[in-house]
Amino acid sequence: MSDEIRQARIDLAAAYRLAHMHGLSEGICNHLTLTVPGQPDKFLVISYGTHWSEVTASNLLLVSFDGEVLEGEGEVEDTAFCIHAPIHRRRPDLSCVMHTHQTQGLALTLIEGGIIEPINQNALRYYGRVAYDNDYAGVAFDAGEGERLADIMQDKSILMMSNHGVLVGGASVARAYDDLYYLERTAAAQILAMSTGRPLKRIPQEICEDTARQLTTDNMHRFANEHFKSLKRVLDRDQPDYRN
């Protein structure tokens, strides 16, 4: 195993542990996947029945876009394959794809016309980057669902899935996890503000556009990398077995 692939496994295992630690997991459901460096037609994912708190670098499965388990023990859960494989195939720029039912993000998808409102600085991280699936289509037991979601996403990297949850894609585990983490914080702040029953104080469009320009890809990659490194230091201190 190359050092690059080994590091990819460590980073994805860290993301699973962190998502559980930050309250973004739900039972043994949902999945975080990562295409393999140098092998973009294969991806890493947990085996069915694995709790996110017990993921390690070595117990991740290596899976083909056809659903064949190439390395590891266990099986690929149907919805992991049916959602993630088509999106990875269609969007090679999104090396890492994270789909969760995290509570606050999910709550926004349960509101008629619910969108991420431009009401705080974190929300502006997502300005112009979000696609909305307004038609829940049932449990994803068919790859056609992943194709449908990829169609809706077009060139966006964030998808709010009506009555279902959220999906975040990124060029790296660090970037995807950073977006996933702040998406939940953004949704929580908006829901708290909405609960007051008072009008939301939306940021003017011109300021939104200027701020979005300030949050350049390079700046956000640098921030995400440093954030993820700091989070891995926490894991190294408290849960070092994720690297095994």
Note down, in words, how this protein is organized.
With 244 residues, the chain is α+β, with helices and mostly antiparallel strands. It has a single domain (3-243), classed as L-fuculose-1-phosphate Aldolase (3-Layer(aba) Sandwich). It is built from seven helices and eight strands; from the N terminus they run αββββαβαβαββααα. It has an eight-stranded mixed beta sheet, with helices on both faces. α2 (78-90) crosses α4, α3 packs across α5 and α5 packs across α7 (217-238). The model has no long low-confidence stretch (mean pLDDT 96).
List keywords for this structure.
alpha+beta; 244 residues; 8-stranded mixed sheet; 43% helix; L-fuculose-1-phosphate Aldolase
Report the total helices.
7
- Tell me the structural class: alpha+beta
CATH superfamily: Class II aldolase/adducin N-terminal domain
The stretches of 5 or more residues where confidence is low (pLDDT under 50) are none
What's the SSE pattern? Answer: HEEEEHEHEHEEHHH
How would a crystallographer describe the biggest sheet?
8 strands, mixed
What is the radius of gyration computed over CA atoms, rounded to a whole number of angstroms? 17 Å
What level of helicity do the residues show?
40-55%
- Integer count of domains: 1
Mean pLDDT across residues: 96
CATH architecture: 3-Layer(aba) Sandwich
Portion in beta strands: 15-25%
- The level 1 CATH classification is Alpha Beta
How many strand segments?
Answer: 8
CATH topology: L-fuculose-1-phosphate Aldolase
Shape: globular
Distance between the termini: 14 Å
Strand ordering within the main sheet: 4-3-2-1-5-8-7-6
